[in-house]
Write a structure and sequence with these properties.
Layout: H1 2-40, H2 47-83, H3 86-92, H4 97-137, H5 143-147, E1 151-156, E2 160-166, E3 168-170, E4 173-175, E5 178-183, E6 193-199, E7 202-206, E8 209-219, E9 223-233, H6 238-242, H7 256-265, H8 271-298, H9 307-333, H10 339-363
Antiparallel strand pairs: 1-2, 2-5, 3-4, 4-7, 5-6, 6-8, 7-8, 8-9
Length: 364
């Protein structure tokens, strides 16, 4: 049994490796073309620099395509074993289908775990380097082109609400920030009362304080007053600020919990980060579900006919799993579904469906 397990592990590994090479080559080609359209058409960079940008994004792209790599790799492995009648020999020797499929499922779980705890942090680091190099290329452009949309932050205490608006973020600085301080005490009809407004040329987050330059204070009763350089205490962590310019996919698996806490303290919505966190936790199950679907679609003996059709159905089922996972994640991000259900429902349902199909067809 140890020899058989090692053989099945090796066959599955080579199948997954072959699928990975093909998928990576395709996504590199597509991303190279997309990067050329996005960057090379606006600034003058060489093809080598364009290829470097694509390589920096590659780890996160690989992680996004891991379900397809596992699906196609396991599908090809078991389809090949079936066509060579190796599955028939194994089962005729008294080996149950559960023992045959165990190495592939275990390998899928291991790849999913490694993807979450190893590949994701690597992808976050290379993505940060990509963003830094991309920003350097556009350093002479307006801030909106570097940082994206306007920035909004909110801090809430027992007696006060602070709303922070800025034109954008440039080099970890808020550009043209406006701080509005609302009092919750003595408010009419539960509406906060504006106490003061502070405008500045820029604000940098440092050591639990906002460091404001050229600040001007406005109060309803006194009007405008120049403050110069001033520091304002804040509970906003650096993660809540810096991650405004980065997608949730660019946050490392190990940093997501502190980013969620920091964003929550800053009054930001954390649903996107929570969905990403739960999705990374569920990734081993997602890859195991893809492997189970591939196995279920290739166990039909080739001499009975229709093996290729079943394999095609397994591939289509894998695509359905992927897109259902994406749809549920979108519903979770929109607040229509809780984050745990959004991340875990699709892989759990497809894994159970594949196991049920295998149990019914193999054990009656």
């Amino acid at each position: 049994m140890r020899v058989l397990t090692r053989y099945l592990l090796w066959q599955t590994f080579t199948g997954i490796l072959g699928a990975a090479v093909i998928v990576i080559a395709v996504i590199l080609l597509i991303d190279f073309v997309e990067t050329s359209r996005d960057i090379a058409t606006r600034v003058d960079i060489s093809p080598a620099d364009t290829a470097l940008f694509s390589l920096l994004k590659l780890p996160l792209l690989i992680q996004d395509t891991l379900p397809f790599i596992i699906l196609f790799g396991v599908l090809w492995t078991f389809f090949r074993l079936n066509r060579r009648s190796e599955l028939i020999v194994m089962r005729a020797s008294g080996v149950s289908v559960w023992r045959i499929m165990a190495p592939a499922v275990a390998l899928a779980l291991a790849v999913g775990l490694a993807g979450s705890v190893l590949l994701n942090p690597l992808g976050a680091a290379t993505n940060a380097h990509f963003e830094a190099r991309r920003s350097a290329l556009f350093e002479n452009r307006p801030v909106e082109e570097v940082s994206g949309a306007r920035v909004w932050l909110r801090e809430v205490s027992d007696d006060q609400v602070v709303i922070i608006a800025a034109r954008g973020i440039d080099d970890a600085r808020l550009v043209d920030p406006v701080f509005r301080f609302y009092s919750l005490q003595g408010a009419n009809d539960d509406r906060p009362v504006l106490e003061q407004q502070i405008e500045a040329g820029q604000a940098r987050l440092s050591g639990g304080f906002w460091q404001l330059n050229d600040a001007v204070e406005y109060r309803p009763e006194t009007g405008a007053a120049s403050l110069g350089d001033v520091s304002l205490p804040t509970r906003t962590g650096p993660e809540a600020l810096f991650e405004r310019t980065r997608s949730t996919q660019g946050v490392s698996f190990w940093r997501l919990p502190e980013v969620i806490v920091s964003a929550r303290e800053a009054g930001l919505s954390t649903r996107a980060y929570e969905i990403r966190w739960q999705s990374l936790l569920a990734q081993p199950l997602l890859l195991a579900a893809a492997a189970l679907m591939a196995i279920a679609a290739t166990l039909r003996l080739s001499r009975l006919g229709g093996a290729a059709g079943f394999a095609l159905a397994g591939g289509l089922g894998g695509f359905l799993l992927y897109f259902l996972q994406r749809m549920l994640s979108g519903l979770g991000s929109a607040g229509n579904l809780d984050t745990v259900s959004a991340a875990w429902s699709a892989p759990a349902l497809f894994a159970l469906a594949a196991l049920l199909y295998i149990a019914v067809t193999e054990d009656g």
